[in-house]
Amino acid sequence: MQNILSSRLLSKNLKIKIYRIIILPVVFYGCETWSLTLREEHRLRVFENRVLRKIFGPRRDGVTREWGKLHNEELNDLYCLPSTVRVIKSRRKRWAGHVARLWERRGVNRVLVGKHEGKRPLERPRRSSEDNIKMDLQVVGCWGLDWIELVEDRDRWWPVVNGAKNLRVP
Predict the structure, then answer these.
(1) Nearest to residue 167, comparing CAs of 70, 56, 93?
(2) Which of 14, 75, 161, 169 has its CA 20 to 30 A from that of 148?
(3) Beta-carbon neighbour count of residue 162 at 10 Å?
(4) Over the Cα atoms of the chain, what is R_g?
(5) Closest CA to 99 of 77, 63, 130, 70
(6) CA of 151: how far to CAs of 3, 18, 89, in Å?
(7) Nearest partner of 148 among 138, 159, 161, 134, judged by Cα
(8) Alpha carbon distance 58, 64 (integer Å)
(9) Phi and psi at residue 98, in whole multiples of 5°?
(10) What is the DSSP string of 63-88?
(11) Closest C-alpha among 2, 31, 14, 19 to residue 164
């Protein structure tokens, strides 16, 4: 795909459509259940910026007439859609809302909301799905709310899910 995205024969709009239709679905496959660490979020941002730099190509400085790489802020201005990390967090919230509204004895609901039995390992455990949702809700500005009760009211839940896409992520 690198040759296609860096080709001068295709327009930038067509390259963006190829990126959105072919590459992003592969990246987002199963993202609703991911427990992203900060390192993984950073790697996703780096990947997205590399692909966008291939699409938009180098920029030419107006004063010195030299070619250089586009900075991240310039890429964000040129590519106006939400970043991959924001889309993943939004999809994760949407999936969690769907699962939380399921019947309590369903296996998926017990995995999302249930408490783990047994001894905890010595090292720090990975964040659970519920921890990820609580952290995502804090970023949106829903501190201290019981997210299960918030899920039950879809009119209040959907703005929270869609609000994750509109945040500026550094």
Answers:
(1) 93
(2) 169
(3) 13
(4) 20
(5) 130
(6) 44, 34, 15
(7) 134
(8) 14
(9) -65, -45
(10) TT--EEPPPHHHHHHH--SPPHHHHH
(11) 31
Which domain covers residue 146, as residue numbers? 86-163
Of the pLDDT bands very low, low, confident and very high (cuts 50, 70, 90), residue 24 is: very high
| Per-chain mean pLDDT for the chain | 81
Establish if 168 belongs to a structural domain: no
- Domain boundary pick from 81, 97, 127: 81
In tens, the pLDDT along 27-63 reads: 999 888 887 888 999 999 999 999 999 898 888 777 7
Among the candidates 28, 62, 81, a domain finishes at: 81
Residue type, 169: V
Q: What are the two backbone dihedrals, phi and then psi, of residue 56, each rounded to the nearest 5 degrees?
A: -85, -15
Residues 6+ apart with CB under 8 A from 91: 28, 31, 32
Give the residue from 168, 85, 169, 82 showing the smallest Cα distance to 132.
85
- Cα separation of 151 and 133, whole Å? 11
